[in-house]
Amino acid sequence: MSNTDPSLVSSHVPTALTAGGPEATMRDSESSTPTDAASDVRLPHRQHPGWWLAIIAVLGLAAAGVNVAATNPNMQWDVFARYFFSGAILQGLGMTLWLTLIAMVAGTAIGVITAVMRQSPVKVLASAAWLYTWFFRGTPLLVQIIFWYNLAILFPTLELGIPFTGLTLWSGATNSLITPFVAASLALSLNEGAYMAEIVRGGLQSVDQGQEEAATALGMTRMKMLRRIVIPQAMRVIVPPFGNEVISMLKSSSLVSVIAMAELLYSAQLIYQQSYETIPLLMVASLWYLVLVTVLSAIQYYVERRFSRGSKRALPPTPAQRLTTWVRNTSLAGRRAGALGRGV
Length: 344
Hints:
Elements: H1 6-10, H2 21-31, H3 34-40, H4 49-71, H5 77-84, H6 87-118, H7 123-138, H8 141-149, H9 151-154, E1 157-162, E2 167-173, H10 174-177, H11 180-206, H12 209-217, H13 222-252, H14 264-275, H15 278-307, H16 319-341
Antiparallel strand pairs: 1-2
């Protein structure tokens, strides 16, 4: 049972497109769901000869690309097939996923804390959060990776003690602590935290202040208001750029190859530096990145769809629902054509 106001539905149906005038429009809107009203009204596109030229150009370029990929022997598809599931490539793929997971989890935690600090009435905390965001967004990620990897030049040993007393509780060589994996994790996490701070802050600021005032008037605590009112609404704004950051981090993790981290790209480089089969190995790495990005994009679509439930009258159909509808309509059209052919 739909709880949508019929008057809202009727406002989306143009009167001129409905036979019978305004009265028929009102009858139709009262008897149909919002999804039906949106799907029944179809405005025919005005065809233009330029469209056909553009379609022919696009199809021609696509055919040319497929032909080059299929006939050029330098593509070395046999080498591509041999290395796509090789152990070294899969280990590099695992390291890429591991670095992305660490960076996003740590970066999100840092970003949430920093965003809350930016909104703090305590000026010292707000200024420290601003300074952190300014510094890590202002320096290139590649520079940060190299800096953490060479931290021993600046601090040969790391010590834990009480400042200004000379009392040292623990100390260790920096080179043995900051391994390439630690350096890569620190650089990726701290850099991601700066960007996530701005994303979270934007999401929190997108919630109307009246929502918080209403929750306060109802007697909600600050934590309950955040959990029940602010965060669910802010997530609609946070999720799209968060998904974009995950995909960006997946690809940015390839920068750690400069410190000899055996992630996906570096693993491919190690192979083609010995075999000189550069193009097939780069194709292997590229296809794995495309596969991962496709999976992450699909996950992002369903997460966005879930958090948009409260802001839309009807959710758009999922790809599976669209496929089911297409199969049903095609089957129905086939039965109708068969019935007309038999003269029924």
